[in-house]
């Protein structure tokens, strides 16, 4: 069971994100990817963008088990406390040759509409290698320490509730590539975005957002306490 080292915890606290490599084996990810293939078409009517699957942990036993996997909880247990609860889970996708960008935003601009949290964060698990060419995340290190920023609704792209572009100093933005099976952990206040997919392959990421169990409520029926607050 992999846990964050003291150095990785410090990186998360100061930078707002950290990468944990080699958490899930390739064969397990391939099986999960096939499960997403099965779920994608029935979920299309509820998806805001092509290839996305919302309320993912409620779609099947396999996706539910993944969102509650002890390997994920072991990574976040020093960050999310007291206790651990699921806020929501989803599958985001960059289809082949998709020009759609996910605009600069903070997750909590979306999440605060349902509940407040002191420790809310996400695990971002790529099912294929995520690279700058196929739409990996871009982040502004340390931006989570500035708190929740102004957001406006855009008419285009993914992540349409986004920060006004003049607010984001792109000179400080860096890519956060991640190999399939690694886990990118990031704060719900971290500024992040993604570019389009310039490759012939898909790029999928299974995302679970967690919060302390003492915060009541999440994204509707997706909210679930996994470890009670002691």
What do you see in this structure?
With 230 residues, this protein is α+β, with helices and mostly antiparallel strands. The protein has a single domain, classed as Jelly Rolls. It contains five helices and twelve strands. It has a six-stranded antiparallel beta sheet with strand order 1-9-4-11-2-12. A four-stranded antiparallel beta sheet has the order 3-10-5-8, with no helix packed on it. A hairpin with a 7-residue loop joins β6 and β7. It is globular. The mean pLDDT is 96.
Nutshell version of this structure?
With 230 residues, the chain is an alpha+beta fold. The chain has helices at residues 6-15, 26-43, 61-67, 70-76, 107-111; strands at 17-20, 84-94, 102-105, 121-126, 137-139, 152-153, 161-162, 174-176, 183-187, 192-194, 203-211, 224-227.
């Amino acid at each position: 069971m992999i846990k964050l080292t003291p150095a990785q915890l410090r990186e998360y606290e100061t930078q707002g994100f950290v990468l944990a490599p080699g958490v899930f084996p390739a064969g397990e990810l391939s099986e999960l990817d096939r499960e997403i293939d099965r779920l994608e078409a029935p979920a299309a009517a509820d998806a805001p963008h092509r290839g996305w699957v919302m309320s993912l942990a409620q779609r099947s036993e396999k996706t539910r088990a993944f969102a509650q996997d002890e390997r994920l909880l072991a990574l976040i247990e020093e960050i999310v406390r007291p206790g651990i609860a699921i806020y929501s889970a989803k599958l985001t996708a960059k289809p082949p040759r998709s020009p759609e960008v996910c605009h600069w935003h903070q997750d909590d601009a979306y999440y605060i509409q349902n509940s407040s949290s002191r420790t809310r964060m996400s695990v971002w698990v790529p099912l294929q290698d995520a690279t700058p060419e196929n739409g990996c995340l871009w982040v502004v290190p340390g931006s989570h320490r500035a708190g929740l920023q102004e957001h406006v609704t855009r008419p285009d792209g993914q992540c349409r509730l986004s920060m006004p572009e003049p607010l984001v100093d792109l000179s400080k933005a860096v890519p956060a590539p991640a190999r399939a099976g690694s886990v990118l952990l990031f704060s719900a206040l971290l500024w992040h975005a993604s570019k389009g997919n310039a490759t012939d392959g898909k790029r999928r990421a299974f995302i679970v957002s967690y919060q302390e169990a003492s915060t009541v409520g999440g994204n509707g029926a997706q909210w679930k306490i996994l470890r009670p607050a002691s």
